[in-house]
Amino acid sequence: ACGGDDDEPAADDTDDAADDSGDGDDADSGDDADSGDDAAEPAGDGPDCAVDEVDGDLFLYNWAEYIDPELLTAFEEQYGVSVTQDTYDSNEAMQPIISAGNSGYDVIVPSDYMVSIMISNGDVMALNKAAIPNYSNLADDFESGLPYDPEGAYAAPYQWGTTGLGVDKAVTGEDFPRSWALVFDQATADEYGTAGSISLLNDPRETLGAALKYLGYSLNSTSEEELNEAKELVANAPIQAFDSDGYDENLATGQTVVAHGYSGNFFVQFDEADDPAQYEYFVPDEGGTRWVDNMAVVHDAPHPCTAHTFINFILDAENGAALTNWNYYASPNEAAEASILPEILEDPAIYPDDLEKLEFISDTGDYEINFSDAFIEAKG
Amino acid sequence: MFWVSNLPSMVPAVSMRALTKRFDDVVAVDALDLDIADGEFFALLGPSGCGKTTTLRMIAGLEIPSAGSLKIHGDEVGTLPPNKRPVNTVFQNYALFPHMSIADNVGFGLRMQKTPKADVARRVGEAIELVRLTGMEHRRPNQLSGGQQQRVALARALVNRPKVLLLDEPLAALDLKLRQGMQFELKQLQREVGITFVFVTHDQEEALSMADRIGVMGDGELLQVGTPEEIYDQPVNRFVADFIGRSNFLPGTVEDSSTVCLTNGTRVVVDHAGTTGEAIALSLRPERVQLVDRGAVPDGHASLDGTIGAVTFLGSGVVYHVTLDWMTIEVRAENRPSVARREVGDDVSLWWRDDAVAVVPA
Amino acid sequence: MFWVSNLPSMVPAVSMRALTKRFDDVVAVDALDLDIADGEFFALLGPSGCGKTTTLRMIAGLEIPSAGSLKIHGDEVGTLPPNKRPVNTVFQNYALFPHMSIADNVGFGLRMQKTPKADVARRVGEAIELVRLTGMEHRRPNQLSGGQQQRVALARALVNRPKVLLLDEPLAALDLKLRQGMQFELKQLQREVGITFVFVTHDQEEALSMADRIGVMGDGELLQVGTPEEIYDQPVNRFVADFIGRSNFLPGTVEDSSTVCLTNGTRVVVDHAGTTGEAIALSLRPERVQLVDRGAVPDGHASLDGTIGAVTFLGSGVVYHVTLDWMTIEVRAENRPSVARREVGDDVSLWWRDDAVAVVPA
Amino acid sequence: MSSSSLDPLDIVDPDHEHHHVGEEVERRLRKADRRRGLLLALPAYLYMVLFFAVPLVIVLVYSFATRTSSGSVALSGWNLDSYRKLGEPIVRNVVFRSAWLAAITTFVCLVIGYPYAYYAATRRPLVRNLLLVAVMIPFWTNFLVRNYSWRLLLSTGGPISSATEAVGLGETDLLFTRTAVVLGLTYSFLPFMILPLYASIERIDWRLVEASRDLYSNGVQSFLKIVLPLSLPGVIAGSILVFVPSLGAYVTPEILGGGRETMLGSYIVTQFLTARNWPVGASVSFVLMAVMLSATIVYFRSGGKNL
Amino acid sequence: MSGSSSAQARGIARFGLSLNVVVVLIFLYAPIVLLTIYSFSGARNPGQWGGFTLDWYRALGDDTRVQDAIWVSIKVALVSTVVSVVLGTMAALALERFTFRGKKVFDALLYLPIIIPDVTMAVMMLLFFTQAFDLLDAWFGLRIAKGFATIVVSHIAFNIAFVSVVVRARIAGMDATLEQAAADLYATRWRAFVHVTLPQIMPGVMGGALLALTLSLDDVVVTQFVAGPGSTTLPVYVFSLIRKGVTPLINAVSVVMLSASLVLVIGSLFAQRANQGRRRREPAA
Ligand SMILES: Nc1ncnc2c1ncn2[C@@H]1O[C@H](COP(=O)(O)OP(=O)(O)OP(=O)(O)O)[C@@H](O)[C@H]1O
Ligand SMILES: Nc1ncnc2c1ncn2[C@@H]1O[C@H](COP(=O)(O)OP(=O)(O)OP(=O)(O)O)[C@@H](O)[C@H]1O
Ligand SMILES: NCCCCNCCCN
Ligand SMILES: [Mg+2]
Ligand SMILES: [Mg+2]
């Protein structure tokens, strides 16, 4: 009900991306051209694969700790192929490896904005939806209308979540504003004891995006002034660290009081704590990032049919539930909800009620450089 | 001359009493008693490992004595660090600072003593002139020949006007021809500056030709101290006799105070034979043995008959190895047209003057 | 003896014709013509940098000649690599393999030639015995003294029974006493094994006492080749005369075939004076000058009057520096009780036998 | 060691036929020797050309290309824009900051590494080897784990903080400070300072120190005037080996510095990955390498060969 | 013994030196001790002490992904070390002992891997391999995939440089007359190399090997970019965990690898010492 009504800029971007795909082919160092052309074909006619067809072993390139190994074993047993999974720690490290070609991987799990980049670069292959009947298990707003892949032509949502703040209530008390002010406003930070104990993600789009949100702008804003304002805000905020790697641990060990980060990580961390109730994760009232990780088939996947079969396998209701029950991220798989643990399903931090204030990060093309420069300047 | 010559004094320049140095279980220097007079050129001589360097290093302060007393000009200096002693050293390998110019090398000690800049420059200039290296001030040590480096090392030490100059085999690295030249220069220089030199060498000829007095060491002990002539002509034992120059040792027994009976039965008259019945050896220098035709020995001298076994030509002389029944004797003859050359196999007789031998313990 | 003595032959062991070595613009060895006879002990002598090592290295095959011919036992070997020549070298610093035992060092050459194992063991044993190191087979080179290392290097070369053995200053690193001992041993050994030795040294006394023949080099050229006596007594020029032993050079002009007029006007009779009017020098060895009381010169000899300027005691001899009006002359006297010692300041006269001088170009 | 790689050397040994001697032969033999050298170098040479120089040229080409709006590289419209970008204040700031941090790191490594190397070089062989191995051993653990360990050590309430609190110095909040970055970089590169320093100190002729003592230097003067100048090659080699990777570091500044100090290494990573601006990433790398290579070559060619 | 009595610091200086050694050793080992302690912690978060447990070591025994990664790492390290030691040593010999055409270029080329930023090398190797594979495919129909071989090739490319620097330093200090002596004693060049040169430069070669091994075992960025499916090395695997939290399992892995190398190093040190001791005790007639 919410995903489809996304903000204008995101939709625009998708168009841009589609327009750019031709350039992307030229840009690709000569020999990638063929595969690029494949990908640039209109959506809908992916490889000629039948349902449950396998054309070899599966090579999966995924985020670390993102799938229950038993699920992979199940796939191996069900289809008589072996699965090799390698893991990465960021979209940015994964993309060039795939983009360069000859990576050897079949399925990757890029995040939303990276999907659009990879589509325009020709890094991923159009899906043959016919070979993925379980695609329809997806909730409506995931099945179509996602800003980075409106038709669902290239990517199948895997898990989703939000970016927000984790807070140590032992310091702030229960009664603090659920606002970015905790981070960006000196007075508020002083009041609740968060000043100097804040970590923000070391990521230009996420962190400048948070600032933009606090300022009331879209996090995909391409206005120089708005970006400048956001930059100043970040530069002057009482921040201890920019950290994408250990923010959850640092919060748990008392190194920080407020941490900017991804929903799932916090839950795993809070669960471990002596008193899980000491901590709280929330998306600030001004709004935040919503992200979706997606399965996609690599443009030169050696085993495209196995890849489709694997995507179909994950989109199965039971398997989708198993995924969420293992990694604590929200599932886009509506059919799976029946089997998802109720405490997950009912946790508003995992399944937020109010999706309106959330925005997807979308690729801004050339403007990405402004984000990254601004972020470097903001960090000092 | 740029230094004040030390006034003659009764206080020895260096005075050691029971000076001892032990390294773990090795006794490198064993209770040395020695006075070196002010202005003297003193040579320490001995085989490798006998403790010469260790003695010098104790005087320099580079080694702390294990026991005993060490005075320089009357002041006990046993544990004074090297930089506080009025002593300088010319090291065997020169130890010139490779990263400094010649002038900086020479001026190093003065600068360390905070001598005013102008003085440093003047005295460095004088010292470099003294060792005849003017014009090379700005070179690095590796741009000099061995002999030149040696002179820099000398200037670097002398410029500080030390009370005592220590030289540890300063000429060992030079080739023979150059060494001979430097020996002469060094001796000249010492006379000019009047500084006490303590000189270590293992080259006996070098010690004999340069030193006022020589101390012969063996195994950490001082075996004999004396003028070159005393040491050469009256060695106290076989070791000293053999180490200083070459010598033949004729074993025998003391018959009475002036007669020795050699192993082959020959009776020999000597100045001081020692205790009757004692086993001794006669030390007989090769150049003091007279080589004559068989039987042509003047009356009144003991004589030994033998055959020429080998001839070694040395340039200024010839060494004959004369084979006797019971031993071989080396004889050195001058290489002069007037002296007939002998051939291998010639039958000869040997004799010597009574005062040509020294009696040493067997 | 474990090797076959080379049969005497008319073919020289080493034969060089116009042998030349250039390094860029330096002519290290300049058109050498030299035959070294089989079984000969040949010494190459000369000052530092004159090309001795380069010559040896060409014979060994470690340096390729720039021009000329080089034969070993009649075979041209100019460009043959070292491992294919019947020649071995004893290097100046021994170049023993530090990571191998003495036995392995000595056996290296044999193993490289694929000699059967049993033979290697036997011959290594014999060679080690020859140099008197039995019992030390299993030590490493750094556990030996300098003299012992030297002997290992010798054994390592000799065990291969080379046709020619090259020795580049093999004794330079030893101290004097040890060096004298090794000189004797080496000479003995060469006689025993009968191998041709080519020996490089810059110590003239070493060359004189050991070699059958000596080649004196200067600046890449061979200046004189001859027996030690020839070189010493009839040097072809001032350089050779001065380099081999010490010499006084009295400048003068040839008056006629047997008379030379010295700079101070004294007329001197000589054997072969040279061309009339030519400026020459008389080379007069210190030990050939007779030192007598002023005026006590025998009739018929030229004499020079002077005063003793300095006395240097050398042990076996004494050197007097006699100051004349126009030059200083060194005189060497034996140190014998029978020879009276002179003091500085004594007035003396000098004379010499007519055949004691050599005429050399001025 | 593969024997086939060296065997050919003997094939080019002169044959028995070449017996006439002369400049011509000498030249030919010298040429053969050069060929031998080349042959010996060839495997590594070819390897480095194929697997290093060629890839490097590819990136060099990229540095003159243009970033497309999707962040890939357009291999057309060659330009110098990416090099121009290097003049912008943002890059200058990063360069100055990283040079400053790298210099501090180098200095700290020198200050604690020198005495360590000095101490090691003046011990007996067994102690010496133990001290050197002791420097290497920590690096047999995973580098990320080492950095995390430091994070723990430095964190609020961590061991260091507790220790300083216990001795009454109050809590020390070092994590996510510039100090922590320098500490972490020092930790990462200390061995690269100690090893060449050790090599050059160990080579010093100690008799020179004695000579200086004899010439009235006290211990400190001997050190400053003799030991230090003579170990300069090690100081320089060590400094290059610490300075260069410090400039290029990015994991340590992020883990221990809280990502607040963008260093050159982070900047390059950002350009290649986050901004996907390969031309700029490449141009920064090339300028950095050119500067460092000139410095290194000048130093190594002028006689220092230490590591 | 290199330090003579007056070169050895006295008094305060001596104390300062010893103190510095202690401080440096504490500095070097504090994190190692800490990570070892936490490898026995029951908490999943490596910063919290969760009571003593051996669970992580047990988990390590069960975790085939980590084990696979360790094996890949070890294999990559060994192969790349051996190859780069051979090539690097040859290069060092050529550079120190010969002149040849292109020597200066080679010399400079060998310094580049030391100064190139890791990412730059990673990117360039990635581009190189993929483009080279495309060319091979287009020209010869050869289909090659990245994987173990590409990692090894890349590691060799930087290790050669490090090995050759270390070995060159050793060769520069070696007495060249030893090789001439060998030639004089009938050794061919090859045999002179094997019997004389190699044993002499062995400490340098071993030092180079040690360095190469360390660099290879520690490399993340280059490896990540050139690895192919299933050829993840331990550091790459650990790095990918960075966002999800590195558990004490990785500490346990570190401790195991540390112990193994410690046993190797200390073992070889003592073997060396025993060897020397035996030599010293040999008959001294
Ligand atoms: N630092 C030291 N530690 C242990 N032993 C030493 C030390 N220095 C010298 N020795 C030993 O002390 C003895 C005397 O050595 P010293 O160097 O004084 O001899 P030397 O007479 O100078 O010999 P050379 O002529 O070889 O120089 C030798 O046995 C030597 O091994
Ligand atoms: N490899 C070389 N390159 C250039 N010049 C050389 C080389 N080897 C020797 N020379 C030069 O050739 C000349 C002769 O050198 P050589 O080593 O043969 O002299 P030497 O007589 O052995 O001297 P020494 O007594 O000092 O050993 C010297 O001028 C030397 O500098
Ligand atoms: N300077 C980069 C050389 C590449 C080698 N990378 C090794 C990284 C070890 N952490
Ligand atoms: Mg000594
Ligand atoms: Mg020579």
Structure description:
The complex is a heteropentamer, with 1 copy of chain A (380 residues), 2 copies of chain B (362 residues), 1 copy of chain D (307 residues) and 1 copy of chain E (285 residues). By secondary structure, chain A is α/β, with parallel strands linked by helices. Chain A is 41% helix and 15% strand. Chain A is built from 17 helices and 11 strands. Chain A has helices at 8-27, 33-40, 69-79, 91-100, 112-121, 140-143, 169-172, 181-184, 186-191, 204-214, 224-236, 247-252, 263-272, 304-314, 317-327, 342-345, 368-379, and strands spanning 58-63, 83-88, 107-108, 124-125, 155-168, 198-200, 241-242, 258-262, 279-282, 288-298, 358-359. In chain A, strands 1, 2, 3, 4, 5, 6, 7, 8, 9, 10 and 11 form an 11-stranded mixed β-sheet that branches. Chain A starts with 7 loop residues before the first helix and ends with a helix. Residues 1-43 of chain A have low confidence and may be disordered. Chain B is an alpha+beta fold and 362 residues long. Chain B folds into 2 domains: 14-238, P-loop containing nucleotide triphosphate hydrolases (Rossmann fold), CATH 3.40.50; 248-361, OB fold (Dihydrolipoamide Acetyltransferase, E2P) (Beta Barrel). Chain B has helices spanning 52-60, 102-112, 117-130, 146-158, 176-193, 204-210, 228-233, 238-243, and strands at 14-23, 26-36, 41-45, 67-72, 75-76, 87-90, 164-168, 196-201, 213-218, 221-226, 248-256, 259-262, 267-269, 279-284, 290-293, 303-313, 317-323, 328-334, 347-351, 357-361. In chain B, the strands form 4 sheets. Chain B has a 6-stranded mixed β-sheet, sandwiched between helices. A 5-stranded antiparallel β-sheet of chain B has the order 13-12-11-14-20. A 5-stranded antiparallel β-sheet of chain B has the order 15-19-16-17-18, with no helix packed on it. In chain B, strand 1 and strand 2 form a beta hairpin. The longest helix of chain B has 18 residues, at 176-193. Chain B is elongated and about 75 Å long. Chain D has one domain (89-304): MetI-like (MetI-like fold, Orthogonal Bundle), CATH 1.10.3720.10. In chain D, strands 1-2 form a two-stranded antiparallel ribbon. The model of chain D is unreliable at 1-19 (pLDDT under 50). Chain E is mostly helical and 285 residues long. Chain E has one domain (63-280): MetI-like fold. Helix content of chain E is 76%, strand content 0%. Chain E has helices at residues 11-38, 55-62, 64-97, 103-115, 118-140, 148-172, 177-184, 189-218, 221-226, 234-240, 248-281. The longest helix of chain E is centred in the first third of the chain and has 34 residues, at 64-97. In chain E, 51% of the residues are buried. Chains D and E meet through helix 2, helix 4, helix 5, helix 6 and helix 8 of D and helix 1, helix 3, helix 4, helix 5 and helix 6 of E.
